[in-house]
């Protein structure tokens, strides 16, 4: 496996910067768009043809690269793309994405007019936002579609169940706002056995009953996130909102045969230096670990600036020539040391896998998250800007993959 195979990063005229380059990055993430398409197909088969897909691409598509991923989900016919804020929405519009965009997070009053100007839909998550959006729509001379978010138990953003009737009336009575959607967010969908999501759904259904009472039927009722899509079919409604499932990660560990997902991203680096050391030789900052025997230490050009965190020190492993190799000493800002004395033929320039498969061995984002005491989302979102994202696109053969630094 080398970085010059199907992952050669060929920048073409429709990519950011319109530049051609050889492999110059010391650490890179391979994003398999064919697997992304397969995951989208699996989700759609699971929910059925009557339910649309909102692809959640906030936080740079969970570190996978929002623009490249948005192009794929747009081609796949996603009903909506969800983003975290206006900046993320404008990035996609500037890249030519035409799919409807919904800001799932907070929108500041100063950002409402720019959102409307870019045909970006805003979520109403507080009573005061109704007046603010009306003013922005009037200033733009438009009628603005909005989605009303209800807090049924997440306690983050959203009008309360008690506030819902008054906010609903205010939107329906406005000549500047059009209620396109109503939604909520499940806080505990990965653990359906605790019953908390059932209570949230009951409160959400109570709000939907208020819609019927006033004769309103917005075209998009949505509730299920990735885990909700799996465990709560009654929450599919008109559209499901999937993020981490798009990228082949199952934080529940229980998707199994119901959703056959494939990991989309692999993260790799390469050996830049090898050094034979004697048993007892201290390794790295603070001399936190010593060589357990006469061995060979490989230096990798990846560190916590790239998202390979200090918490992985002395605990994580990497893959080299199909074998696991332990991280030694403390992970540095730019470098990580690994014991490779047991790997025959290890050489400078060898590709090293941090996340992904090499031969019969695989290291997952979930494995690293378990070491760090966090979630796979954070592992992906923490990848630094020096980590080049290389994309295998439709029809790419060896030596042809679209890339973006």
Task: Provide structural commentary.
It is a single chain. The protein is an alpha/beta fold. The protein folds into two domains: 34-247, TIM Barrel (Alpha-Beta Barrel), CATH 3.20.20.10; 265-386, Lyase, Ornithine Decarboxylase, Chain A, domain 1. It contains eleven helices and 23 strands. The strands form three sheets. Strands 1, 2, 12, 13, 16, 17, 18, 19, 20, 21, 22 and 23 form a twelve-stranded mixed beta sheet that branches. Strand 4 (80-83), helix 4 (86-94) and strand 5 form a beta-alpha-beta unit.
Labels describing this entry:
405 residues, TIM Barrel, 2 domains, twelve-stranded mixed beta sheet, disordered C terminus
Q: Mind sketching the topology for me?
A:
Blueprint: E1 9-10, E2 28-32, H1 33-47, E3 52-56, H2 58-62, H3 66-75, E4 80-83, H4 86-94, E5 101-103, H5 109-117, E6 120-124, H6 128-140, E7 144-151, E8 159-160, H7 164-172, E9 177-184, H8 196-213, E10 220-222, H9 226-231, E11 239-242, E12 265-270, E13 273-277, E14 282-283, E15 289-290, E16 295-300, E17 317-320, E18 323-328, E19 336-339, E20 351-358, E21 361-363, H10 365-372, H11 376-381, E22 388-392, E23 401-404
Parallel strand pairs: 1-23, 2-22, 3-4, 3-11, 4-5, 5-6, 6-7, 7-8, 7-9, 9-10
Antiparallel strand pairs: 2-12, 12-20, 13-16, 14-15, 16-19, 17-18, 17-20, 18-19, 20-21, 22-23
């Amino acid at each position: 496996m080398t970085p010059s195979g199907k992952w050669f990063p060929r920048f073409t005229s429709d990519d950011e910067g319109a530049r051609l380059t050889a492999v110059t990055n010391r650490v890179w993430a391979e994003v398999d768009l064919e697997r992304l398409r397969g995951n989208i197909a699996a989700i759609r088969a699971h929910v059925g043809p009557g339910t649309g897909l909102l692809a959640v691409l906030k936080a740079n598509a969970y570190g996978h690269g929002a623009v490249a991923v948005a192009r794929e989900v747009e081609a796949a016919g996603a009903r909506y793309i969800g983003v975290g804020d206006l900046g993320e929405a404008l990035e996609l519009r500037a890249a030519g994405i035409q799919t409807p965009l919904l800001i799932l997070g907070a929108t500041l009053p100063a950002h409402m007019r720019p959102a409307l100007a870019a045909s970006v839909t805003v979520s109403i998550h507080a009573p005061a936002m109704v007046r603010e959006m009306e003013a922005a729509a009037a200033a733009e001379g438009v009628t603005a579609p909005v989605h009303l978010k209800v807090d049924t138990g997440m306690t983050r953003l959203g009008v309360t169940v008690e506030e819902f009737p008054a906010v609903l009336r205010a939107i329906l009575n406005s000549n500047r706002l059009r209620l396109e959607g109503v939604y909520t967010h499940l806080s505990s969908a990965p653990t359906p056995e605790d019953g908390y999501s059932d209570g949230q759904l009951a409160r959400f259904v109570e709000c939907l009953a208020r819609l019927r009472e006033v004769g309103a039927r917005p075209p998009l009722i949505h509730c299920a996130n990735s885990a909700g899509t799996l465990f709560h079919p009654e929450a599919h409604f008109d559209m499901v909102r999937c993020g981490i499932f798009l990228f082949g990660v199952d934080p529940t560990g229980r998707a199994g045969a119901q959703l056959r997902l494939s990991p989309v991203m692999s993260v790799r680096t390469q050996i830049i230096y090898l050094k034979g050391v004697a048993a007892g030789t201290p390794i790295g900052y603070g001399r936190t670990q010593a060589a357990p025997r006469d061995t060979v230490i490989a230096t990798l050009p990846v560190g916590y600036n790239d998202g390979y965190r200090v918490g992985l020190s002395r605990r994580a492993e990497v893959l080299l020539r199909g074998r696991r190799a332990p991280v030694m000493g403390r992970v540095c800002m730019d470098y990580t040391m690994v014991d490779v004395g047991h790997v025959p033929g290890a050489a400078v320039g060898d590709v090293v896998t941090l996340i992904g498969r090499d031969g019969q061995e695989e290291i997952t984002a979930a494995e690293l998250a378990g070491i760090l005491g966090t979630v796979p989302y954070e592992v992906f979102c923490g990848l630094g800007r020096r980590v080049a994202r290389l994309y295998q696109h439709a029809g790419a053969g060896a030596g042809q993959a679209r890339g973006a630094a």
